[in-house]
């Protein structure tokens, strides 16, 4: 959809697909190609968990945003399992409490134009925390 597209319910959707694409490409470059692979791994993990009834389905865009917010150094780890361990731990730990009041501490969507958590979102910090916890257990991390 284009920014400002009117939905059938009368609301509008504002998205920033060009920013998302450009920033995703930059993050992928900054992580030597690991960012996009990590996003695909997390999406496959979530699909498998959903199919097996381990956890409810999570929006694909949200999963991309979780990986986008992970520090770049996590993507330099020795294995994909280690990359996912770091990313899931980061998602779990940083969603334990309420949304930070300091804007610089808040997570952004993968377009860096909007905060990831807020009243207009379809997801919550609690739902991300529960997903990260379930994924951690599913991956049998200790």
Rg, rounded, reads 15 Å
Strand order of the largest sheet: 1-2
Number of helices: 5
Count of β-strands? 2
The total domain count is 1
Structural class: mainly alpha
Give the low-confidence spans.
1-6
What do the pLDDT scores average to?
92
What would you call the quaternary organization? single chain
Main sheet record: 2 strands, antiparallel
Measured between the Cα atoms of the first and last residue, the distance is: 42 Å
Please give the share of residues in helix: 40-55%
Q: What global shape is seen?
A: globular
SSE run: EEHHHHH
Strand fraction equals under 5%
Describe the protein's architecture and organization.
This protein has 142 residues and is mostly helical. The chain has one domain. It has 5 helices and 2 strands, in the order E-E-H-H-H-H-H. Strands 1-2 form a two-stranded antiparallel sheet. Helix 4 packs antiparallel against helix 5. The longest helix is centred in the first third of the chain and has 18 residues. It is globular, with a radius of gyration of 15 Å. It starts with a strand and ends with a helix. The N terminus is likely disordered.
SSE arrangement:
Elements (H helix, E strand, L loop, with lengths): L4 E2 L5 E2 L3 H14 L3 H18 L8 H9 L11 H14 L31 H14 L4
Antiparallel strand pairs: 1-2
Helix pairs in contact: 2-3, 4-5
Attribute tags:
142 residues; mainly alpha; 2 strands
Task: Briefly summarize what is shown.
The chain has 142 residues and is an all-alpha fold. The protein contains five helices and two strands, in the order ββααααα. The protein has one domain (16-138).
